[in-house]
Amino acid sequence: MIQDDGRTYATDVALSEEFRDIDVPRREWWGAWGTWDGRLDPARVTEVSAAYGTWLLHEAVARPQGLELAGVTLLPEPASWEVPVQAVDPPVPLLLPRALARHQRWQAGLRVMAVPGPEGAEALEMAHGGFGPPPDCVVVTWVLPPQPAARRRALRQCDLLRITLRSRTPAARALQIGLTEQDGAPWGADISVPDHWQTVDIPLSSLQFFGHWSHPEGRGGEGDRLRAERLQQVTVAFGAWQDPARAAEPHTIQIARMELDRSR
User: Which residues, listed in sequence order, are joined to residue 115 by a DSSP beta bridge?
Assistant: First the structure.
């Protein structure tokens, strides 16, 4: 959406083979093409642009592409209040695909967007056209918002990390996950990625201290463990080191859910 003052706001939408209506609230449009702040003003929109290309189509880039757009309509926002609500009991979500996909400064060659996931949920899709020799890789990191006291109490009850994910390309078969505390102490694991939606439970007690990452002194010793209530940052990474023989092939991984929970 391009306004009369030149400011531009954009969003990503996942396409389907059939015509369907896609509603995008104004809060989900972010600054693009040199616009870094502000909020979309529908009254000032003078031009609509639809764009797609190689950054969205890594594994399909060599195939013919086509797009049919039946119409774009600006509708008034409903006269209502939106109040964010958080559960005070586990599970505690760590991933909001659409919010994370708005990030504009990903590594070169990496595409990140929200796509349809299982059972009507959204998933985060991370795609790369192919890596060079090890240690070439991509890293996606996001910082968690400050947690209220009730949510910290819920985090203290958590003893496992639950992830629902799948691979969309044959070469993408592993993912490294890192959880970093407020003091910078990193914990993580390497997990296999199936070619179909699968939920994986990782006990927090099995996470390894990532001493090869930047970390504070005095952490990672005997008896040390992840303190979930102090969790501040999540990192996922994949790249050439996981399967050097197939590193140059396209890699696409989707994550539909990532949360901390307690054993039932």
Answer: 123
